[in-house]
ABC-2 transporter permease
Amino acid sequence: MIRFTLFDLHNIVSTAPLRPLLMLGLVAVIGATAPVQGAAIMVGGYMGAMLLSSVFLTDERGRLDALYGLSRVSRTAVVFGRYATALVVGAGTSAFGFVVALVIVAIHRSRVEWTLMGLMALGAFVVAVISISALLPWYFAMGYARGRQAMLVLIIALVGLGWLGSRTSIFDGATIAALMDDGAGITAIILVAGLAVLTASAALASRLYRNRNL
């Protein structure tokens, strides 16, 4: 599984090197223009998940799925290796977003709101979990060409959730303060729930991929 993840990461960098740079550029631009400190961290979590679509595109163009089927690599190893890739890429793009956020704070000569930064990092994890768990089973079941519509549905869903949150009290100061009163407990619950969702999603993707005719 580790070797497959390394193979995936090499493909992301080597097959279309401009795509990761474009994603990181979007993280920087959106983070610089967003009114909330640390927004680049959450954007990084989303962009990391979106970058995974390029790996499935590479599989389809190079007919690597058929190669995986002929090799000794099991389909389960392919699935869990790619989920590991998703987590590594998401962590990397979120870390880049964190650096961007610190640079923006330094440019504006303002104070770092560490609590807000932590909340944005937690939000990045949630966004990444939702994106990865929703997209990867779809791609494994149908391939890139037929599964890319799922990305549009996901974007619409995330925008809708953001709009819904902005119309309610979920993002106001009182709610954030209440969450931070028990920050460690809330963080632990979200991390455990996120890992459980990812595990269930990977199990579903593995079953779908095993049943797919390559």
User: Anything to note?
Assistant: The chain has a mean pLDDT of 81.
